[in-house]
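Render Lipoprotein in 3D.
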Amino acid sequence: MKDKITAVGALLSIGLTMGCQGMHKQEDADVDDKLQQALTEAMDKQDFRLFYTTGRRPVVPGFEQFAFKDLEARCGVKVMPGTGDTLRSEADKAARSEAYQYAKSYNLKIYDACLNKL
């Protein structure tokens, strides 16, 4: 009996894990589609500006080691919406992290296009 309960528990755990992984893959695909669409639109408009976060110290995700003014002069910059200093909840923190990762992916790709436009 104990072995059957253990086996059922293990199968349930595996099922839940596999189901959740499928959800993340769909979310990742949606983000990738959104990112690709944004990059295509930017390229079509020849808009090579990089996203930056607002706050006490502006940060260009993916290019923290570069001087903000240098990036601004080379490619231009634009504000990533909803990226101020204030975090009120764990949901805000998660949303900020997601926005940062999106901006970083976008910036790394658009920066290459910016350099190659010259």
